[in-house]
TrEMBL record:
GO terms for molecular function: carbon-sulfur lyase activity; metal ion binding. SUPFAM superfamilies: Mss4-like. This is CENP-V/GFA domain-containing protein. PANTHER family: CENP-V_GFA DOMAIN-CONTAINING PROTEIN (PTHR33337:SF3), GFA DOMAIN-CONTAINING PROTEIN (PTHR33337).
Length: 138
């Protein structure tokens, strides 16, 4: 189950487990999470977006440019402000095939096998051998 802090937005993921879990140490994730890193679970876009009609009035979205020049859609609960999902748009405006769900919104998310990404700006020690290349959706 995916749920914001206040419960106004609650829905199930399209898969029982994410395709991958990323622990992102970039400065944007640090700022967004108000922490040393952000945790994101990767899912296919298909079946996750658009939000169900009954949830749409509760979800807001804003966009920002990434360092790679792509656009990132940031979906959040309009009531409590919790960030829920990020979806990358390719330079031609089409959607990436995957999106990320913010880890703190997911029940029982396992960090086993999580990939540490954008570690250049890490504020905490990164476990040796756990780094990976940045995902293409950012």
């Amino acid at each position: 189950m995916i749920r914001c802090h206040c419960g106004a937005v609650s829905f199930r993921a399209v898969l029982p487990k994410p395709l991958a879990v990323d622990v992102c140490h970039c400065s944007e994730c640090q700022r967004q999470s108000s922490s040393a890193f952000g945790i994101s679970a990767v899912f296919p876009v298909e079946g996750m977006l658009p939000f169900a009609e009954d949830l749409q009035p509760h979800v807001g979205m804003w966009t920002r440019k990434t360092d790679s020049g792509r656009t990132l859609e940031c979906y959040f609960c309009k009531t409590c402000g919790v960030r829920l999902i990020h979806r990358g748009l390719l330079p031609d405006g089409s959607s990436s095939q995957t999106l990320t769900v913010k880890g703190g919104c997911m029940e029982n998310l396992s960090l086993d096998g999580a990939r540490h990404i954008y570690t250049r700006s890490a504020r905490v020690p990164v476990p040796e051998g756990s780094c990976s290349r940045p995902p293409d959706q950012y």
